[in-house]
């Protein structure tokens, strides 16, 4: 018969050994340190990179962030996504990064995309909205501009 985990210990069977990482408030400051390191090293901040950098399993990071008592950690974790978005936007605009790759990463990881809706009625084309985020698209739908047809 195999090893039986102590009652209530969901980590004891099948793990790779060691004690599960325990959340500490110091990890909030660790996120700031990580963001400074990424900027200094010119690295794209991400949860995956933070996981490797801090030697904390990504699953553990998400578990901590999901707990109500770790709300401050969860909010600070969002800083990584914000830093990444700024890094990609700036790098794409100043051509220090490949603009196509920046556009791809912004659309896939940050919900940014180019959207234009057009409606054609007879000889008139209405541009309903041009936006880069769903929120901007909703706001822009309120404005309808009629263009004369050619």
Mean pLDDT: 77
Helix/strand/pairing category: alpha+beta
Spatial order of the strands forming the largest sheet: 1-2-3
Radius of gyration, whole Å: 23 Å
Number of DSSP strand runs: 3
Number of domains: 2
Describe the largest sheet: 3 strands, antiparallel
Q: How large is the share of residues in beta strands?
A: 5-15%
Number of helices: 6
**What would the principal axes of the Cα set say about the shape?**
extended
* Helix and strand run: HHHHHEEHE
Low-pLDDT parts are 144-150
Distance N to C terminus: 81 Å
Helix content: 40-55%
Description:
There is one protein chain. The protein has 150 residues and is an alpha+beta fold. The protein has two domains: 26-109, no CATH class; 115-147, no CATH class. The chain is built from six helices and three strands, in the order αααααββαβ. Strands 1-2-3 form a three-stranded antiparallel beta sheet, covered by helices on one side. The longest helix has 23 residues, at 71-93. It is extended and about 75 Å long.
Outline:
Helix content is 49%, strand content 12%. The chain is of the alpha+beta class and 150 residues long.
């Amino acid at each position: 018969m195999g090893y039986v985990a102590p009652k209530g210990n969901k980590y004891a069977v099948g793990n790779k050994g060691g004690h599960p990482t325990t959340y500490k408030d110091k990890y909030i400051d660790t996120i700031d340190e990580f963001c400074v390191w990424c900027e200094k090293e010119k690295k794209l901040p991400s949860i995956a990179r933070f996981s490797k950098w801090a030697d904390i399993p990504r699953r553990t990071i998400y578990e901590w962030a999901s707990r109500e008592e770790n709300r401050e950690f969860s909010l600070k974790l969002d800083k990584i996504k914000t830093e990444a978005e700024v890094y990609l936007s700036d790098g794409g605009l100043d051509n220090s990064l490949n603009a196509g790759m920046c556009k791809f990463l912004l659309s896939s990881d940050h919900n940014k995309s180019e959207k234009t809706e057009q409606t054609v009625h007879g000889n008139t084309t209405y541009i309903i909205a041009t936006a880069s985020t769903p929120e901007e698209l909703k706001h822009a739908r309120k404005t309808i501009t009629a263009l004369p047809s050619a």
